[in-house]
Amino acid sequence: MTGTPRPAPASSDSRLLGLRGGLVVSCQARAGLPLHGPHHMTAMARAAVDGGAVGIRAEGTDDVRAIRTAVELPVIGLWKTDDPGVFITPTPAHAIAVAEAGADIVAADATARPRPDGGDFAGTVAAVHRLGRLVMADVATVEEGLAAQEAGADMVSTTLSGYTDGGTPPLDPDIGLVARLAGRLTVPVFAEGRIHSPAQARAALDAGAWAVVVGTAITAPQWITAQFAGALSA
Ligand SMILES: CC(=O)N[C@H](C=O)[C@@H](O)[C@H](O)[C@H](O)COP(=O)(O)O
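Above: query sequence and N-acetylmannosamine-6-phosphate SMILES. Below: predicted holo structure tokens.
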């Protein structure tokens, strides 16, 4: 690629600097849930802005497009499929659609599991970079984080820890993985997955996270309700 200007290090990118030390709220509700759809997810995103979020993570081109229009914060977009194995933005085509819907950052599964198109994560990175957007690599292990950085990811998130071995995911967030990734990578590390309290979010930041992503505990009222109901029935 002679003649192509070398991009500045990702951590000096304003889209990343704006997220540093802050809370990204993941506004997602899959089909069948009461809050599914761009109308409700845009309202969630607006509420997150009012509460002090520095970024929004959103799923599906309809939600990404609507939230992009409604809020000024950076939007981390993704596209979940029903594929076995890799299911978060599994191909360059999915990533391009998410970027074209308005995502500033495209999140994609960077695990080594088989992809529906037989491609690799580097292909998704290249497609997103051609559109001038950044890539967040969703990983479950340190090795996957290192490979994602090598493949060109601009940041790595612990999103998939606990979800790739076929077992029941643990209840707690994987703060240990945050610390191990932060100790090994040069790109920013995001803490994501099962962060259910402000104290856990703080612990993730203290462990070296660039920023913290929280979804369920903020944007899933059915889960929040179940916590209260469970405490009363115990
Ligand atoms: C594993 C997977 O599919 N994670 C998804 C990734 O976008 C979302 O379902 C999560 O809500 C998001 O990662 C935030 O995590 P939590 O909702 O635990 O705060």
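The pocket of N-acetylmannosamine-6-phosphate is lined by residues 26, 28, 78, 159-160, 163, 192-195, 213-217 (CB under 6 Å).
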